[in-house]
Amino acid sequence: MSNALQNVKVGDRLPELTLPAVNRTTLALFGCASGDLNPIHLDIDFARKAGMPDVFAHGMLSMAWLGRLLTRWAPQSRLRSFGVRFQGITHLGHIITCQGRVTEIAEVNGERCARVEVATVNQYGQIKIVGDALVALG
Fold this sequence. Notes:
Blueprint: H1 2-6, E1 17-18, H2 24-34, H3 44-49, H4 59-73, E2 79-86, E3 97-108, E4 111-121, E5 127-136
Antiparallel strand pairs: 1-3, 2-5, 3-4, 4-5
């Protein structure tokens, strides 16, 4: 993997990661694993009282998927920073695709690094999360 990272250039795209449709089981499992048991993500009655049609995915679930996208491309030990902005709600039934593109190659703190723009997009082309990561290339 290291040799491939040494050849990274601006404009390179990370291999996309498409997840199965969001369902209640995924939300329950993520809630338990993360400790985020906010009922807006798990309890349809609570979600409806809050004005939502149903429960919806935790924002951090989609961020975790973007983390998986990044660590499939480069070892976790090379990740120097990773941040996102939440743009929209990921509803039940959404099929999320994680995407990444190298936008810059620069020396940061003495390391050759790639800045990678990342996003999650549902099957309707709606962007749900955008962000970026800094990855040391070696």
